[in-house]
Amino acid sequence: MTKGTTKKPHDIGPWTMIRDVLLSAMAKGQLPVLGAMFLFGLMVWKMPQEEVGKLVFRIEERLEQRQLLGYLISVIAICGWYVTARGQRRVIAGELKRLSNERNALQAKAIGDKNVESSKS
């Protein structure tokens, strides 16, 4: 940095937000979904306005004719999987915490009054 300018650690701009969203998506395994949504949005953005209206009506028509039923069912299944996986993570985290507390209590009982440093930093 040049002399006389200071950058605050809480300065957040659009590039910081984009970086954080991308890092979070990569950490959670959602980057392909984010990429597909971005590409679809870009394609719709670049289409002429009249074509976007036609696209929406074409999708609605195919949904009424049940031609896109498989896609709709797959989206519903993916949403159900997400909710189930989130619930399972919560249950497993609770069980791990319970086991950790039980282990710590048994270790404290076995060691007695000896002071042992924690492995946490």
Structure description:
By secondary structure, the chain is mainly alpha-helical. It has a domain at 68-111. The chain contains four helices and no strands. The mean pLDDT is 85.
Number of strands: 0
Low-confidence stretches: none
Order of helices and strands: HHHH
Rg, alpha carbons: 26 Å
Shape: flat
Q: Kindly state the percentage of residues in helix.
A: over 70%
Give the overall average pLDDT. Answer: 85
For the largest beta-sheet, the strand count, sense and barrel status come to: none
Strand content: under 5%
Please give the alpha-carbon distance between the first and last residues.
Answer: 32 Å
Q: Which structural class best describes the helix and strand composition?
A: mainly alpha
Number of helices, where a helix is a run of at least 4 consecutive DSSP H or I residues: 4
Could you outline the blueprint of secondary structure elements for this entry?
Layout: H1 14-28, H2 31-46, H3 49-64, H4 69-111
Key terms for this structure?
single chain; 121 residues; mainly alpha; 4 helices
Short description:
The protein is an all-alpha fold and 121 residues long. The protein has helices at residues 14-28, 31-46, 49-64, 69-111. Helix content is 74%, strand content 0%.
